[in-house]
Amino acid sequence: MTLIESVRFAFSCMDRATRKNVVISVFLLALTSSMEILGIGLVFPVIQLLPAETLEGQHELVQLAAKALAVESPDTLALIGVIALVAVLGIKGVSAVLVQAWSTRRLLEGQYRATANLYSAYLKADLAWHNRNNSAAVLHRLNHCCNVLFGTVPTNCVTIFSDVILSLGMVILLVTASPVAALISLAFGAFGVILNNKVLSVRIRDLTKERDEIARLSQGLVLESKHGIQDVRVLACEPYFFTRYRRFLDRLTDLFTKMKVLALLPRYSFELIAGVFILIVFVVITETLDRAAVVPTLALYVVTALRLLPTVARMTAQVSMLRTAIPSAMELAKDRETFGQNLFKTAMVDDTAAARDRQRLPLEQGMELENICFNYLPGEPILNNMNMTIARGQCVGIVGPSGAGKSTIIGLLLGFFAPISGRILIDGKALDPDLSAYERSIGFVQQAVFVADSTVRENVAFGEDPADIDDARIWTALEMANIDAFVRELPDGLDTQLSEHGSRISGGQRQRLGIARALYHEPEMLILDEATSSLDLETEAQISQVISSLRGRKTIVIIAHRLSTVKDCDMIYFVKDGTVAGKGTFESLQKSNAEFRALVELGDLQSAAQ
Ligand SMILES: Nc1ncnc2c1ncn2[C@@H]1O[C@H](COP(=O)(O)OP(=O)(O)O)[C@@H](O)[C@H]1O
Ligand SMILES: [Mg+2]
Asked: Ligand 2: distance of its center to the CA of 530 in Å?
C-alpha cells in the first residue's frame, strides 16, 4: 500500500459522523489560524507607522482605518494597531483551545467506536478464525493498528490540511508585499518539502513496518512464556526467552535511533532553508524596493519566515508520520476482507437492552444431527454422515477413541462451526445461524475450564455485569456442582480472588467451578466434553455423582474416552472415524458391538463393571 492508499483506506473505514468531524475540524482549525495571519498582517502597518511623522504616504488601508477611527497621529494609530494585535492573539488563543478540545473529543470518539466495533467482530468471529489468529496478533491490531489508523491518521490530516490553509494565507500575504521575493522563497520551500519527502518516505515506511513486527513478536514471546511458565521453569529455558526478548529490544534501540534521526531531518533542513530564505529576501528587497519600504517589508518577511517555515516543517513531519500508518492499514485491510465492508462502522454485538432481554429458546423435544458431514481442511473429512438424537431429559454419552470427532460434534451443536452438509435440528427446526437465542439454553464444560482473573462470584456468573449478579443463584449453582462447602470455607467467600489460569484451585475444584458456571444460567442442556478426564478416579466419581444428581432435571451430554464415566447413560453413541459405529445402553452396546465389547474388556472398564 502507498501512503495515499493507506489514508484513503483509513477514511473509507470511518463512519460518516467521524468523516464529517474531520472536515469540520479542518475548517475550525484553519479559522483560528487565519486569525494569526490577521495578527501578522497587523505587524506590517504598525512598523511602517512608527518612524512616520504624519499619515501622509501611508498605505490606503491605513489611511482608511485612520479616517474610520478619527485618529490623526501615527503614534496613536500604531498603538491601536498593537492593541488590536493583542486582542486578535487573545481571541485566537481562546478559540484555538476550544476548537482543539472539541475536535480531540470528536475524533477520539470516532477512533474508539471503530476499535470497539473491531473487537465486537473478534468476539463474534467463528472458532476457526480464533484458532488461526493468536492473542498477540489480535492485541496488536486492537491496540496499535487501530490507534494509528483511526487516531494518528485523522488528527494528522486535520493538522496538515489546516496548516496548508494557513501557509497559503501567509504566502498570499508575502506576495502582496513583494511578489519576486515571495516566488523565490516559495520555490525554496517547495524544494525543501520535496527533498525531505523523497529522502524520508521509503526509510520511514520500512522502519515502522519492522517496528510493528517486533512489537508483535515480543508481545507474543511474553505471552508464550507467561502461559507456559511451568514448562519454562522445568525445561530451564529462561535463557532462551530472555535472549530472544533482549534481541528484540536491541533491534528496537537501533530502529528508534534511526527513526529519531529521520524525524529531526525536516526541522534542521528547514532551519537552514529559513536562513537562506532570509538572505535572498534581504538581497531582493534591498535591490528592488526604495529605502523607506525596506524595513517594514523585511520585518514582515522575518516574522513570516519564523511562522511559515516551522509550519511547513511541521507539515512535512506530519506527512512522514502518516507513513507509519501504512503497515497498520495493511493489517486492518486483511480484517476488513474477512469481516466485510462495514467492519469498523457497525457493531457485530447487539448490546441493547432488547437484545439482552431476548427470550431464550426452550429445548422442548431435543436436538438432532442429520447426515452431518464436516471437515476443518478441504479434502480431510472429519465427520461422515453422522446421525445422532439427543432427546430432552435424557443422559446421552458419546464415547470413542481420541481423534474420533467427538469434540467436533459438540463444536457443531454449539454453532462454533457450520456443517458442510446435513442438518442440525432443534425441536425439529433447523438451527438458526444466529444462535444467541438458544445459546444460554446450553451449558458447556470442557476438559480445561477457563478461570478468569477475578472473584469466585464473577467466575461463576462469567460475562455478567457484576451489578446484575444474583447471589442466591450463585449459591444454587455452587450447591448443584457440590463446591459450595469449599467456597464457604474460603477466607473471602464469593469475593475470593482466583488468579489467572486458576492456579489457586485444584483440578477437581476447577471442574466443579466450570459446572457451576454452566448451571448458573439454568440451562436446559448440559454438555460435558472430557470434563472429568484429567481428574483422578475418586474426584471423577464425586463429579459423576454431581452429574447423576442432575439427571432427569437436565438434558445431559457426556463425552468421555473413559467408559466408566458414561456407563449409566440412557443412550451411548460409540463414535469411530467420524461416524456412529454403534449405539444403545452400556449393556446393549456391549452385546451388539464387538469393538465396544473389546474396549470394555480391555481397560479401566473393569472398574466400570463394578
Ligand atoms: N481446528 C482444527 N483444525 C484442523 N483439524 C482439527 C481441528 N480440531 C480437530 N481437528 C482434527 O479433527 C479430528 C477430530 O478431532 P476431535 O473432534 O477433537 O476428536 P475427539 O474429541 O474425538 O478426540 C482429529 O483428527 C483432529 O486432529
Ligand atoms: Mg475431544
From this structure: 7
